[in-house]
Every structure is written in structure tokens, then in C-alpha cells.
Write a structure and sequence with these properties.
about 625 residues; alpha+beta; Nucleotidyltransferase, domain 5; Actin, Chain A, domain 4; Substrate Binding Domain Of DNAk, Chain A, domain 1; 4 domains; 6-stranded mixed β-sheet; 15 helices; 30 strands; binds adenosine-5'-diphosphate; binds magnesium ion
Length: about 625
């Protein structure tokens, strides 16, 4: 039920509805969509051109951040303070990204190889969660501006391959941005919803969703039956996407210009400029067969054919993943009734051709591949709001979940590709006589030894009454909710001793850390605002000083020596104030100068008009 409240400041009635928005928080681009008159629409920028907000955050020298297109412009001029592709770092430890650091123009910090990576900007360290929160804040502000009402509830999408830590991190970013994240949804599930497939109860089919974005590739096989979406299998690569296409074009140009390679290694600004040029080349080659451009003095060119040869290995890798996904689902290419194309990189003709050839059918690309995920997220939000009652969504776990048993072995409790929500229990016992405590260590992954898998967390079940080894009956339950977030419960059945924990992995952040980050960001917001106000006052003062100089020179003969001396004195005061840090002083002197010079300006204007009129008569 929508409620109404009065906005006192404006005195107008604002709708305070229960709107839930859909957000595609992408590696390269993010966007927000909502349901308008029964249809999902993506929210465009104020000029109505594009709904895409580049997932880029730039830190201004004087404090504060820019997000989106404005931040993208800083990639070339100030790469060290401009953070892109942060989604690649979500929920990752430094070890996870080791070897890939050179693809980031900014500094990634190796604080302690086991912990969450941090990004260094000037003398502060930011987590990928904080940076993603900046992007989410920008999206929130964008939709609030369009709808003229506060928005606080959202559904956010993630690649199907995101593990628990990455999902947690995404949820935390939402929280930090002031959003209540009602559901984390897999991107392919959202894409299929956007195509309306499965919205009719007798719509029964099996589809493939091929999503090639800027930084991630996902292939998902979905079965849709009577309004139920079931992900049969997923496969993909979190380090494969359009960024790689850009990179091979850059390498191609560097190979042709021997001196470029060494320059690129040392000059990060040049690297970014080349990166952007390579991206425009790639985009142009989606609809023409030749590209030429310049970087500084250098002429650079590439043909569509050369480009296709360069990216063939990447495209082949995506096709291999499609093959594996089909195999996991126990299906053949001919069983697939629709192939949905998602992500900006599916505009590349070689990609479309190869996917169509592999599945032996025309691909479905009628919707804007950049927007489908956000549109589907908005539809999912609508389902959660209770507006589409018949729809049920079932996802699956991308990786196996289990616990460590004797000898460091992984004992899988929930195998990969299990449907969620899920609840599975299994019995264990102790290995030592009189054992009172039992460590339950939870891992995610497909390897037999836990050391090779990812640890999600551990806890100790305490207070087991002393019994001979093998006698206690300990039941471990895994409860996986619809977001793919895991709770683990351990219970010793003979004594009733019990413990349950939510697996906030070592890569996630705790409530306390979250609170600290919030306080921190509020404090910074205040100092950022003060810094911005000072900067604005200085800018204003500098331009008034320039105008005053010009004014005095142009109208020298109109003013008395005292008047000129007075203006020069106030201008001198303003000049001194600009050197200082006191924005109130700058504004005060600025006002003094305006007050004093207003009548003089008026006199000058009249004299000039009279002069012009006289001129006309002659
Ligand atoms: P993500 O899901 O990773 O945020 P998107 O779906 O927004 O990514 O896709 C971004 C990628 O799509 C970028 O690598 C971009 O260069 C690429 N892209 C956008 N338009 C085109 C085009 N016309 N041809 C080829 N690639 C494109
Ligand atoms: Mg995407």
C-alpha cells in the first residue's frame, strides 16, 4: 500500500511508494530500471541518450568523487585516481588477482595475501565494496531524480558464477549505498525474464543465455516450465570479456610500433588513451570492416579480419564453455529452443556468428543487450513486490559446498548445480575419545583436498559431553537461501548441543566493519563537501578577478584615481583570500568587490551604450 507524506521543505505531496528497483551492477557499465505502467524501463541520463553508467569512480584532487561518464573522462588524464572494473575485485583476495595487476591502472594493495584486496587512492585504502557503493549511490540518485521520490529497495544482479563471498560483497555494497537489497539475482535469470520467456504458464522450453560483457563471460542453460525458471547448469569465465578484445588490439598496435611497447609500460596515461582508442576500434568494427585512428602523432589502423583473427581464441573459449554447460545439463545443442544474447560484446559479429553456428540456430538479440539484465531485474523486483503472483524462481549453486573431514578432505554436502533454496543434512561423529569440541570448517569448490578449495569460514561446536570416539552423533545442516547465502548448523543429537552460523566468509565484512565504514564515509562526505565549497568559492573569485582586471583596462578613462585605487585594493584583498583556506572570507570579499563595483559597472555600461549610439549616427 503506497503511503503519502508531506515534504516540508517544498511543501508538496510526495509519493512514498514501495517501489523496488532493478540494478545491473556491471563490471563495465551499470544501470537501473523500474516498472512503469507494467513494462520495465531503464533510466536514462538527463539528456535521455543512454541508460549506461560506466562503472568508474574518480577521486577528485580536492576531495569527493565523480562516477560514470565524468569519471570515464579521467581515465586518460588521471588513471591513478580513476577506478574501473572494480567488480572483478569484489570478494577477492590479493592472491586471487595476483598476475592481473597490470590490467588495472590503479594501485592494488597486498596488505596480507589472504585478506580482501584494497585499492589505494592517495593516502587512503578503499575496499571494492566501498567503490561499488559509490556506483550504486549514483544509480540511486539518478532514479530518485527521475521519479522525484526516495528509493531504498533494490534487486541487484550478479554473474551466475559469483561465489558466496562475491554475493555478500555485492549485498554489502548495496547496504553501504543506503539500499535494502531484497534479492541478489543471477544475471541470466534476469535476462530471460526480460525476454518474457516463461511469463505464460504454458510456456515450456529450454534456453541458453550467452552473456559476454566487458569483464565476465557466463553461459547458462535454463529450463522454463509452468512459470518456473530452473537453471540447469552454468559455466563461464570471470576473466573473459570485451576488455580482452581491447587489450589484444592494443597489443597488435604495440607489435607494429616497436617503440610503443616500452612507452606503454611506463606511461599509464598513454596506456589508458590506447585502451579507449582500441575500444572505439572494436565498436566500429561491429558495423564496418576497417578502423583508423590516432594517438598523438601515431596513425593506427586495423581491419575487421585482423580483429577477428585476434579474438578468435577468446570466442573459442566461450564456445568450449557452452559445450561444458550443455554437457552438465545433459543436453545437446539441438535441445535448446532460444539462445539469448546479453552484454555489449555480443554486438561483435564474430561472436554472434560463432554462437549461432554452435547452437545451430539464429540467436535472439531483439532487446538491447546492454539493458536486458537490468530490465529483468526490474521484473524480478516486481515479482518480489507481489505484483506477479504466479512466478517462481529457482536458481542453482555454481560451486560445491562442503566441510573439511579427517586428513584435510573435502566432504561435499551440497554438490554444484544443486537447486536453491536448499537444505541438506549429514551425520558425522568424533575421531578422538572424550572430544569436547568440534571444528566445522566450510569450503566451496570442486577439489578433493580442502587446501585447494576456498574457505568460507569455520566455527567450533563446543560442549559435547565426553564420549568414546565414534559415539557422538553430530548432524551438520547446510541451509542455502534464495540469494545463495549459506547458513550452517551443527547439532550433537545425544546432548542437544547446537550452533548455527551464517557463513560470512573471511572475504566479507562484519557488521562492525560496516558500521565503521559508514561512519568513515559520512565523515569523509562532510570534509568532501567543505573541500568542494572552498574550491567553488576560489573558482568564482578567480574568474571575478580576471573580469575586474579586464574591466579596469577597458574603462580606464571613466573612473577617478580614487575609484581605481579602491577597486584595486579590494581585488588585492580577494587575491589574498583566495590563497587561504577560508571560504567564508573569500565569499565576503567577493561580495564587497561586487557591491563596490556594481555602480561603476553601471556607469561603464551607460557610457558604452551612449558611445555606440553616437557611433551609429555618424
Ligand atoms: P558488463 O556486463 O561487463 O558491465 P556490458 O554488457 O556493459 O558489460 O558490456 C560492455 C562491453 O561491451 C565493453 O567491453 C564494450 O566495449 C562492449 N561493447 C559495447 N558496444 C559494443 C559494440 N558496438 N561492439 C562491440 N563491443 C561493444
Ligand atoms: Mg553485464
Amino acid at each position: 500500500m503506497p503511503t503519502f507524506s508531506i515534504d516540508l521543505k517544498e511543501g508538496k505531496l510526495v509519493k512514498n511508494s514501495d517501489l523496488i528497483v532493478g540494478i545491473d551492477l556491471g563490471t563495465t557499465n551499470s544501470l537501473v530500471a523500474y516498472m512503469k505502467d507494467g513494462a520495465a524501463v531503464a533510466v536514462k541520463d538527463p539528456d535521455g541518450k543512454s541508460a549506461l553508467v560506466p562503472s568508474i569512480v574518480h577521486f577528485l584532487p580536492e576531495g569527493g568523487v565523480l562516477v560514470g561518464d565524468e569519471a570515464k573522462e579521467k581515465l586518460v588524464s588521471d588513471p591513478r585516481h580513476t577506478i574501473y572494473s572494480v567488480k572483478r575485485l569484489m570478494g577477492k583476495s590479493y592472491r586471487d588477482v595476483k598476475g592481473f595487476e597490470q590490467y588495472f591502472g590503479y594501485q592494488i594493495i597486498d596488505e596480507d595475501t589472504e585478506s580482501l584486496v584494497k585499492i589505494r587512492v592517495k593516502d587512503r585504502f578503499y575496499t571494492p565494496i566501498e567503490l561499488s557503493a559509490e556506483i550504486l549511490k549514483a544509480l540511486k540518485a539518478r532514479i530518485e531524480g527521475v521519479l522525484e521520490q526516495p528509493v531504498s529497495k533494490a534487486v541487484i544482479t550478479v554473474p551466475a558464477y559469483f561465489n558466496d563471498a562475491q554475493r555478500q560483497a555485492t549485498r554489502d555494497a548495496g547496504k553501504l549505498a543506503g539500499l535494502d537489497v531484497l534479492r541478489i539475482v543471477n544475471e541470466p535469470t534476469a535476462a530471460s525474464l526480460a525476454y518474457g520467456i516463461g511469463l505464460h504458464p504454458d510456456d515450456n522450453q529450454v534456453i541458453a543465455v550467452y552473456d559476454l560483457g566487458g569483464g565476465t563471460f557466463d553461459i547458462s542453460i535454463l529450463r522454463i516450465e509452468q512459470g518456473v525458471f530452473e537453471v540447469l547448469s552454468t559455466n563461464g569465465d570471470t576473466f573473459l570479456g570485451g576488455d580482452d578484445f581491447d587489450r589484444v588490439i592494443m597489443d597488435f598496435w604495440a607489435d607494429q610500433n616497436a617503440d610503443l611497447r616500452s612507452l606503454l609500460e611506463t606511461d599509464k596515461g598513454l596506456r589508458q588513451e590506447m585502451r579507449l582508442l582500441a575500444e572505439s576500434a572494436k565498436k566500429q568494427l561491429s558495423s564496418s570492416d576497417w578502423f583508423e585512428g590516432r594517438v598523438g602523432e601515431r596513425h593506427l589502423e586495423i581491419s575487421a579480419q585482423q580483429f577477428e583473427t585476434l579474438i578468435q581464441p577468446f570466442v573459442d573459449r566461450t564456445i568450449d564453455a557452452c559445450r561444458s554447460a550443455l554437457r552438465d545439463a545433459g543436453l545437446q545443442a539441438s535441445d535448446i529452443q532460444h539462445v539469448i544474447m546479453v552484454g555489449g560484446s555480443t554486438r561483435t559479429p564474430l561472436v554472434k556468428r560463432s554462437v549461432a553456428a554452435f547452437f545451430g540456430r539464429e540467436v535472439n538479440d531483439s532487446l538491447n543487450p546492454d539493458e536486458v539484465v537490468a530490465l529483468g531485474a526490474a521484473i524480478q523486483a516486481d515479482v518480489l513486490a507481489g505484483n506477479q503472483k504466479d512466478l517462481l524462481l529457482i536458481d542453482i549453486t555454481p560451486l560445491s559446498l562442503g566441510i573439511e573431514t579427517m586428513g584435510g578432505l573435502m566432504d561435499v554436502i551440497l554438490p554444484r548445480n544443486s537447486k536453491v533454496p536448499a537444505r541438506v543434512g549429514r551425520s558425522y561423529t568424533t575421531s578422538v575419545d572424550g572430544q569436547r569440541n568440534l571444528k566445522v570448517a566450510v569450503y566451496q569448490g570442486e577439489r578433493d583436498l580442502v587446501a585447494h578449495n576456498r574457505k568460507l569460514g569455520e566455527f567450533i561446536l563446543r560442549g559435547i559431553p565426553p564420549m568414546p570416539a565414534g559415539l557422538p552423533k553430530i548432524e551438520i545442516h547446510f541451509i542455502l537461501d534464495a540469494d545463495g547465502i549459506l547458513r550452517v548448523r551443527a547439532k550433537e543429537l545425544r546432548s542437544g548441543v547446537e550452533q548455527e552460523v551464517e557463513m560470512r566468509s573471511q572475504y566479507g565484512i562484519s557488521e562492525e566493519e560496516m558500521a565503521l565504514m559508514l561512519i568513515d564515509s559520512i565523515q569523509n562526505a562532510q570534509s568532501d563537501m567543505a573541500a568542494r565549497a572552498l574550491l567553488e568559492a576560489r573558482n568564482e573569485a578567480r574568474s571575478v578577478l580576471l573580469a575586474t582586471d579586464r574591466f579596469l583596462i577597458q574603462n580606464a578613462e571613466l573612473f577617478s584615481p580614487e575609484e581605481k585605487a579602491q577597486i584595486t585594493a579590494i581585488a588585492g584583498e580577494l587575491d589574498a583570500a583566495v590563497q587561504g583556506e577560508d571560504k567564508d572570507l573569500i565569499n565576503k570579499v567577493l561580495e564587497d568587490l561586487n557591491t563596490y563595483s556594481a555602480p561603476l559597472a553601471h556607469r561603464a555600461l551607460e557610457a558604452n551604450v551612449a558611445q555606440a549610439l553616437k557611433g551609429n549616427k555618424v
